[in-house]
Automatic annotation (TrEMBL):
GO terms for molecular function: arsenite methyltransferase activity. Belongs to the methyltransferase superfamily. Arsenite methyltransferase family. Residues 68-221 form the Methyltransferase domain. CDD domains: AdoMet_MTases. This is Arsenite methyltransferase. Keywords: S-adenosyl-L-methionine, Transferase. It catalyses: arsenic triglutathione + [thioredoxin]-dithiol + S-adenosyl-L-methionine + 2 H2O = methylarsonous acid + [thioredoxin]-disulfide + 3 glutathione + S-adenosyl-L-homocysteine + H(+); arsenic triglutathione + 3 [thioredoxin]-dithiol + 3 S-adenosyl-L-methionine = trimethylarsine + 3 [thioredoxin]-disulfide + 3 glutathione + 3 S-adenosyl-L-homocysteine + 3 H(+); arsenic triglutathione + 2 [thioredoxin]-dithiol + 2 S-adenosyl-L-methionine + H2O = dimethylarsinous acid + 2 [thioredoxin]-disulfide + 3 glutathione + 2 S-adenosyl-L-homocysteine + 2 H(+). One of its GO terms (cellular component) is cytosol. InterPro entries: Arsenite_MeTrfase-like (IPR026669), Methyltranfer_dom (IPR025714), SAM-dependent_MTases_sf (IPR029063). Pfam families: Methyltransf_31. Its EC number is 2.1.1.137. Gene3D superfamilies: 3.40.5.100, Vaccinia Virus protein VP39 (3.40.50.150).
């Protein structure tokens, strides 16, 4: 599909066709129901109903260690995640939301004063910009300014995913992180699915084959993606299920770090000091690493480089392993495939159900 046609159709979908979460035709754009920590639930409850009603995300984009962070939200829509995060970064942090659909940006902008008053801030710590995520520099955003780039169910809608990741990389400071949830397919999707307007708008037809995310991330300069969580998408729409056939989809959250090429790292023993808001006793970093406060964990070179060179460095004691052999039993097989992760969770019977969150079927 031509780029301009994709933009126009997606803008119409989110600006005109959909008025509220309940208008979605599949459950692809709904956050899997999972228990939320109280501090996130409370932050979400403070977001104005008119903003939350136009939420179309597929994950929870709340990375840890957010105090004072500068965050850029790609495809912020009506701004629900921006207003939630505005509370978590605090008055000295800042959130910029960008979106190409004017109607959504208008809703987001309209309620800045309401939220700042509600949060008791003297001046706004959010702003919203109407622009394309593939052209952030052209829109006047300054590079290397952000600690975090987030996105919730948006990148699948882009006709040029490489450009999105490249721009995100440019916007991040060294040691910064892209933390985003999106929809992925189990292989390259065929033309007839890719050209389906509703399936594209519903965040399915444009889904990347998950392995391509690893390729693009590497080309752009990121460390290999770290899988945070994933859940299976069942469309819940017979007509669209027939078109999609046997192709499978998951909603998955990945974290990608921008670590300087000069930073050499070796295997390390690390100890989480604790103290990150909401994760005081335990930090679930991704599906492979879980750090309990005070416990020694052997980490590989990549993980050591991330912990040493990102906002997490102050939260860990880090000691190179040197010639010491890794402790048996502390080694783990790494999972990077979100489909394999979902299968393992289903086999264990611990999969979260892919039902709606802040959508027609209830609210988290
Ligand atoms: C599924 S909605 C998610 C919105 C928001 N993240 C949320 O959680 O409610 C996708 C959003 O991405 C925006 N979008 C899609 N492609 C975009 C692009 N190339 N540049 C900027 N925004 C885009 C759409 O306008 C829409 O608001």
């Amino acid at each position: 599909m031509a780029v301009e046609k994709i933009y126009k159709e997606v803008q119409d979908y989110y600006g005109k066709d959909l008025k509220k979460t309940e208008d979605l035709k599949t459950n692809a754009c709904l956050t899997p129901a999972r228990p939320l920590p109280a501090f996130i639930r409370e932050a979400l409850e403070c977001v104005l109903e008119e903003v939350s009603a136009k939420y179309y995300g597929c994950g929870l984009v709340v990375p840890e260690c957010l105090e004072d962070c500068w965050i850029l939200d790609l495809g912020c829509g009506s701004g629900r995640d921006c207003y939630m995060l505005s509370q978590l970064v605090g008055e000295n942090g800042h959130i910029t939301g960008i979106d190409m659909t004017e109607a959504q940006v208008e809703v987001a902008k309209k309620h800045i004063d309401y939220h700042m008053n509600k949060f008791g801030y003297k001046k706004p710590n959010v702003n919203f910009i109407h622009c394309y995520m593939e052209k952030l520099s052209e829109a006047g955003l300054k590079g290397e300014c952000y600690n975090l780039v987030i996105s919730n169910c948006v990148i699948n809608l882009s006709p040029d995913k490489r450009a999105v990741l490249h721009e995100a990389y440019q916007m991040l400071k060294a040691g910064g992180e892209m933390y985003f949830s999106d929809v992925y397919a189990n292989c390259d999707l065929p033309e007839d699915i890719r050209k389906h307007r509703v399936l594209w708008g519903e965040c399915l037809a444009g889904a990347l084959w998950w392995q391509d995310l690893y390729n693009i991330a590497k080309e752009v300069g990121f460390q290999p993606p770290r899988l945070v969580t994933a859940s299976r998408i069942t469309l819940g729409n017979k007509e669209l299920e027939n078109i999609v056939g046997n192709y499978q989809f998951v909603s998955a959250t990945f974290r990608l770090f921008k670590i300087s090429k000069d930073s050499t790292a070796q295997r390390c023993e690390v100890i989480y000091k604790g103290g990150i808001t909401g994760h005081e006793k335990e930090l679930e970093f991704d599906v492979n690493y879980r750090f309990k406060q005070g416990e020694i964990v052997d980490v590989d070179e990549e993980t050591a480089a991330i912990l040493q060179n990102s906002r997490f460095s102050a939260k860990f004691l880090i000691q190179p392993l040197g010639k010491k052999q890794p402790t048996p039993g502390r080694q783990k097989l790494k999972i990077g495939d979100p489909f394999k992760f979902v299968e393992q969770m289903e086999a264990k019977g611990t999969m979260k159900t892919p039902s709606g969150c802040c959508g027609p079927k209830g609210c988290c």
